[in-house]
Amino acid sequence: MRTIEEKLHEHKQSFNRVQAPPELEGRLRNALQNVPVKPRKRNKALLWVASAAAALILIAGMYQYPAFAYYGAKLLDRNELISLSFSEVAEQGYGQTVNKSKKFDDGSVITINGVIADDNAFLIYYTIDFPAGSRIGPEDRSSHYNVDKLHGFLTDSDPKAGYGNYINDGSQYKGVYKYEPVSPFSRTLTATFSKWQDNGEKASNTISFNFEANKAMKNIVKQKISKSVAVDQGTVHYDTITASPSSTIVRGHYELENKGNPWFFAKTKLLVNGTEVKFWGMSSSSYVKTGFPGFELEFDVLPTDKIETIELVLENSDGYQKVEKPISLASPSDQSIRIGGEKLWIRSVTKTDSGYDIVIARKQFTILETDSLSVQAGGNIVPVSSISASRAWDLNNGNILWEQTYSFATANKPEQLLLEGYRYIKTYDEKITIPIESKKSSH
After folding, report:
1. 8-42 pLDDT per residue, tens
2. Which CATH number applies to 4-215: 2.60.40.1640, 2.60.120.260, 3.90.226.10, 3.40.190.150?
3. Residue 207, H or E segment
4. For FRET with 171, which of 59, 74, 123, 416 sits at 20 to 30 Å CA-CA?
């Protein structure tokens, strides 16, 4: 018989093949579609299916979760949390066993096996048993099942992500769903599961269970950061860090000159005792206090309970380069022109029936400012009249650039390109040290 450690190692290998989902704007207001998740056909890897941005309800200082007996002896290994079998998780001493079921009219049964809670997430471990004799596969009926909100006192939590797999030759599906944190004052929680029937109608079942807040897990670190890093067109603010046994969440917001969303979201690293903590994903939302755009960064659990230093490094973010001088169009070629920290290629200047076309190439994430783009031709300033879609320019040396055709309605050959500026991904590598005020629990 395989040991629990061997099984967890297998789940770890599967989970490590998964890529974090693209960030999604806004809060998920409706039931998630296509749940349980379809495993990939080739390797049936666990698959994250959704990421939601939300303003999370935090109740700080009003209620203290009693800690598990194991806490202080060791930290949670994320791979233990992502085991699809709650019995394996429970054997490690984590979570609350539920074992409550509801049956759909077609004979399928959904069971909540157990839950795990902390200030960063609420995890539901569930099983779907298909009707006797059914053998369901990833190409069949997995998309017929939905997982909806989780309700309770002061709790209205949206599902954020899910993963799972078919077992027992397709007769059963085991999954884990991750919700926003629930209120510790909730004594009863209600989860809603639904499935699309063959007639196109939706059948729903609710499962209510007692929530034992004393089996929730206490934070390792929960404190304000209140530090910022200046970027070209504003500042990136890091507001709080919450390190729980299930994940580490850093929340912050942007304050930009235009009070809008950044063109490129900042890439941030988390270092604990000088070691980088694995990054799992980012979501964004409206920052309630100021109206500025906010963000939430999710990292792995802290690698140790002996914390000496915690640091954030803003690796790169929005950059803006102002172009001070006109760009000569006298000798177009495939040779680059350096402007600030980036390069542009003026590939050609060609006469057309309606004027002149100029082909300009640049790196993929170097974006020219086109609102005031113009040329000087015959003593006149001529604005751009049309811009083509981007197309790849393969340099056949492992590098691919992106070019566009800019059209100008002028009978005179353009002499200079008048470009106000461009946006790009700028390297900052600015480090912030977070004072350590760890909240350690006792047995």
Report:
1. 344 334 333 333 333 333 333 333 333 333 333 33
2. 2.60.40.1640
3. strand 202-210
4. 123
Q: Which residue has the tokens 């792995």?
A: 300
Which is nearest to 349 in space by CA: 365, 328, 366?
328
Q: First CA to last CA across the chain, in angstroms?
A: 33
Domain 221-317+427-434 fold: Immunoglobulin-like (2.60.40)
The residue extents of the domains of the chain are 4-215, 221-317+427-434, 324-419
Return the top range by mean pLDDT from 54-68, 133-147, 216-230, 397-411: 397-411
Let me know if 62 is exposed, middle or buried by CB neighbors in 10 A (0-12, 13-18, 19+): exposed
Going by C-alpha positions, the residue among 196, 203, 164, 296 that lies closest to residue 242 is 296
Mean pLDDT of 435-439: 66
Strand-pair partners of 350 = 357
> Cβ(275)–Cβ(299) under 8 Å?
no
**How many angstroms separate the CA atoms of 123 and 113, rounded?**
11
- Would you place residue 6 in the very low, low, confident or very high pLDDT band (cuts 50, 70, 90)? very low
Q: Are 21 and 281 in contact (CB under 8 A)?
A: yes
